[in-house]
Amino acid sequence: MAQSDRRSLSGPLSFGLVLPLLIIFLFVFCWPIIKLLGVSLFDPAFTLDHYREVLGNDFTQVIFLRTFRVSLLVAALALLIGYPIANLMRSSPPFWAMVIGACVLIPLWTSVLVRSFAWTVLLQRNGAVNAILQSLGITNAPLSLLYNEIAVIVAQAHVMLPFMVMPIYQSLRAIPDELPRAGLSLGASNLAVFWHIILPLSRPGVLAGFLMVFVVSLGAFVTPALIGGPSSMMLATAISTEITEKFNWARGATLSALLLIAVAVLLLIFSRFMQLNKLEQK
Amino acid sequence: MSNMGATVRVSQLVKSYGEHVTAVDNANFEVRSGEFLSILGPSGSGKTSILMCLAGFEVPTAGRIHIGDRDVTDLPPNKREIGVIFQKYALFPHMTVRENIRFPLKMRGMTRAQSDVVVEEALATVRLTELANRMPAQLSGGQQQRVAIARAISFRPPLLLMDESLSALDKKLREEMQIEIKELQRKLGLTIIFVTHDQEEALSMSDRIAVMSRGRIEQIEAPDVIYAAPATRFVAGFVGESSQISGRIAGTTEQGGVSVSLDGGGSIDCRTAPHDRLEIGAPATVYLRPDHVTLGAAGGPDTMAAKILSKSFGGSAVSAIGELSNGTRIAIRLDPEEAKSVALDDVVHLSVQPGQSMAFAAEEGGR
């Protein structure tokens, strides 16, 4: 008791310190969201018509499905690329782990806009990728690599990579050296140690990274807008189009609300999953 | 359930880190089949480096390691067939007790049906059958230790390495585990190499002890020999309790030892280590064990006057500290009855059993 008292500030003081943040949070986050939900539900009287219309509309259904599919693939690709990087960081001496970590994190200091434009430079008809493919004789004419789903997935996975690598690295680093050593001494090969010990113990990091990349990708705007074409439009772009071009606030609000609900449900399922995970390890 | 323990031969083992740190400096020893060898030393003495080389987690800078007839020096750890018990047990936290014990069997390609029998047997050996489905985090320290043992012996390795494996347990549990491990070793005929900094543990469990200091093996002998006839000054000071008294060599005794005249007056007949060169007149240090000091009458042979500085009750005996006239402090053990007649600041006469204490040449520069 006495120890926790010494460590924490008194109730009123800590409340006072949090208050500014709380006010900002209430006014610029909670209030607009409530307003937005209001817009989607009242026209001007209470109605579910907007939801009925959006959910019944083929076009929005396709966009929803595409957004989920693309985000899942982004998370899967980021995991595929990010896990080996995190594992390399774990097995490297501290200096090299720091260098790799810096290489992963420094791109975060440049804006998403710049990183996405870099991909358009790489993937355009006379860009670096086409030049390499042609010089290797793989194709004769330049391919159109931009403005499709695959380009969006690749670029978005690149943008999201740090959010995959860091949680996985954290959970890998929490595994004591004695465990893989014990595995080896018990006759397991390096591969078996990875499969039976390292991989299962890094599951919390994998789940956290996957969820983070998936959820953020669901609402991603910049990369899909720059790299994707009209045929690969995603939800955030659609919402922006509804509001800024068609001035259809109700529709934009409804799409936003549906996205919010989807993310909330995902997080709920995930936290359940994590709790079960913890129980299992106890 | 019995198998033959392996012999182990370590020859000219050197382990250096970089150019300046030599953790193990030319270690040579053999371990007999079924023997319990402790490697005892303070932290940084190189004992863990030897163990890591034996297990295969570290590559020796030079030297060879044989287990049985096999030269394992260049084998990876998973091909050595050695059971290792780590300091913190290293149980896999995401597997049940049963899955942990099954792991080495699974790695050897045993089917579930085959391994079931072995796992149950191992569980029974360490009396954990009821806890087989628990997760490691649900077990007490002693139970985790037993799971680690069961896991390490389930694949019948001929050699078991233990790295400070009991140090995380409290005293009572540690003593229970010491007995259990010894019983298990006798039953299975295992060869055990046990690394520890706890000399009581090493003295009570081992067939032989290798005492290490600064990367070198100072002495490798049975516990009673280590205690009664330490080969070097380091061993004399590190193993068991002793008081160090400085003096000079006065002459030799009929038993082949030396007589040391103490700087504070009086003299003690001592034994010497075989390789120690002690010339008459040279400075020497006497390592006096409390066991060899008794209260005596004034003026007797081998007596010293000492002022009692402190007494502390320890159950069957009372430990006291006496101070000689030149300020040297001596640990004394009194029986509780005797202790009642001695008060603090009393000057008593201490009689030393002749020919029991060890004398070594004083350290360069003298003390």
Give a verbal description of the structure.
The complex is a heterodimer of chains A (282) and B (367). Chain A has 14 helices and no strands. Chain A has 2 domains: 16-47; 49-281, MetI-like fold. With 282 residues, chain A is an all-alpha fold. Chain B is an alpha+beta fold and 367 residues long. Chain B folds into 2 domains: 8-233, Rossmann fold (3-Layer(aba) Sandwich), CATH 3.40.50; 242-361, RNA polymerase II/Efflux pump adaptor protein, barrel-sandwich hybrid domain (OB fold (Dihydrolipoamide Acetyltransferase, E2P)). Helices cover 24% and strands 34% of the residues of chain B. Chain B contains 9 helices and 20 strands. Chain B has helices at residues 47-55, 97-107, 112-125, 141-153, 171-188, 199-205, 223-228, 233-238, 336-340; strands spanning 8-17, 21-31, 36-40, 62-67, 70-71, 82-85, 159-163, 191-196, 208-213, 216-221, 243-252, 258-262, 267-272, 283-288, 293-296, 303-313, 318-323, 329-334, 347-352, 357-361. In chain B, the strands form 4 sheets. In chain B, strands 6-7-8-3-9-10 form a 6-stranded mixed β-sheet, sandwiched between helices. Chain B has a 5-stranded mixed β-barrel with strand order 11-12-13-20-14. In chain B, strand 12 (258-262) and strand 13 (267-272) form a beta hairpin. The longest helix of chain B has 18 residues, at 171-188. The N and C termini of chain B lie far apart (55 Å). Chain A: Belongs to the binding-protein-dependent transport system permease family. CysTW subfamily. Chain A: It comes from Devosia epidermidihirudinis. Chain A: It is found in: Cell membrane. Chain A: Residues 64-270 form the ABC transmembrane type-1 domain. Chain A: One of its GO terms (biological process) is transmembrane transport. Chain B: One of its GO terms (molecular function) is transmembrane transporter activity.
